[in-house]
Amino acid sequence: MRVEKASAIAEIVSSVAIVATLIYLGVETQQNTQALQVNVRQAAADAEVEWLYNLLNTPEVLIDVGPAVLEGQYDARALAATGVLAASLFRLRENLWLQYRSGALDLELWGPYRDTLADIISSNEVMKAQWEGMRGFYASGFQVEIDGVMQQRRGSESQ
């Protein structure tokens, strides 16, 4: 009888230990996920600031692209500079999309980045042409998402 009691007590203790371990692992997983999301948010902000910093520290690009955008007249230098800017911006946003798809970035942060890119592409004929010419270099899901936002915006503007 004593062995049976000891066995029953051991089963209860092991069951409680398993439940406690599962709770601990759940809390740890949640904390790790939150830490990962914070790191991804910071990396996204750092990448965006670096992109803008590089742009501002390359005055020839601003000199070539600035007037072209304002006047809508692009010479060969302005088109080349716009292509480089577009490619780097598209790749930067594609990386954020990949982070979003993996669950490391939430829609609250990805949505504004996505919408801004769609607005930039939609608002300028040269950027539209750059997107059309380069879109095949990016993940198909990223293409579909950006194209979908642009189409949705066009649909809401026509209503």
Strand count: 0
Gyration radius (Cα, Å) is: 25 Å
Structural class: mainly alpha
**SSE sequence, one letter per element:** HHHHHH
Biggest sheet layout: none
What key attributes describe this structure?
159 residues, elongated
In words, what does this structure look like?
The chain has helices at 2-56, 59-71, 76-102, 107-122, 125-134, 140-157. It is mainly α and 159 residues long. The protein has one domain (45-157). The longest helix has 55 residues, at 2-56. It starts with a helix and ends with a helix. Helix 2 crosses helix 3 (76-102), helix 3 packs across helix 5 (125-134) and helix 4 packs across helix 6 (140-157).
Summarize the structure.
This protein is mainly α. Helices cover 87% and strands 0% of the residues.
Q: Strands, helices and their partners?
A:
Blueprint: H1 2-56, H2 59-71, H3 76-102, H4 107-122, H5 125-134, H6 140-157
